[in-house]
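User: structure tokens for this one?
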Amino acid sequence: MPRPHIEPYDERPDPFKRMTLPGFGKGMHYKVLSMDTDTGACSLLVKFESGYKLPPGMSYSELEMFVVSGSVTYGDTTYGEGYYFLIPPGVTMPEMTVKRGAKVIMFYNYGEPSFISSDEDHPLAERERLSIINSMEDIAWMPGNRIVPSVASGCMLKLLKYDIHTEAHTFLYCMTPGFSQDNISYHDCCEESYHIWGTSWMMQFGDLPTGGYFWRPPYINHGAFASKNGIIAIGRTDAHLHNYFHHNPWTNPKENADRAAARLRRLRPSLYKWVQSPDGHNHFTDFEYPHYHDHDHDHG
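Assistant:
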């Protein structure tokens, strides 16, 4: 099943658990923020003890890591608060050490956490996608109106990752002191967020503090929003982010999805017709394997 709707969740009162999966070693502790129980893909808050070491190796799942506090030494370089890592599956990581403890957020995409000792990349690894970014200094804040339709002024973004195939993206965002937006929104995509610092308010449940988190499936109403003193948070989506705005807090996800479908029908009628086809879809034929999509195709 997909990840459930988790909102709001304040992780701070909950204890860390000791990581016992093979390969990770002693001195690593975690809290599950959300998890897909079918694939094992998950979002974790991780605490490394002082002196933690992880030998060179790789994961079979794409890993995104954000340093919340402390620092980690990755190879010969030490990275402190605000550093973001995108490590594609199969890309070998150098030895990682933590001298004085650290907290990080780890997003394992498409599969459960895994670590295999290795000093070379998997043959299919996409090393060119490896990225290490100082999110505080390497990227300027962009106004939130870069996402159309745009949110109210005072919400700004720093883009950390963009997937050209799915349009999923990972970003830092901030609300400046006094930020306020009085409408309600929903999206076609899932979205998640972890408050690194500050407190925001949402009409549906009140305050989301530092350490607050949500995983929100598509078409869930959220808003209005406000923040008295401002926030900094890390957010992610699994697809293109389109803001549907309205002012009716009582609509349900089915009604919101129907409204989104009406927009698709209006703007892209041929695609809407294809999506709604009751007889299935005629997929293209692969020129090299002309019978690839036949129902009796041997997948072995």
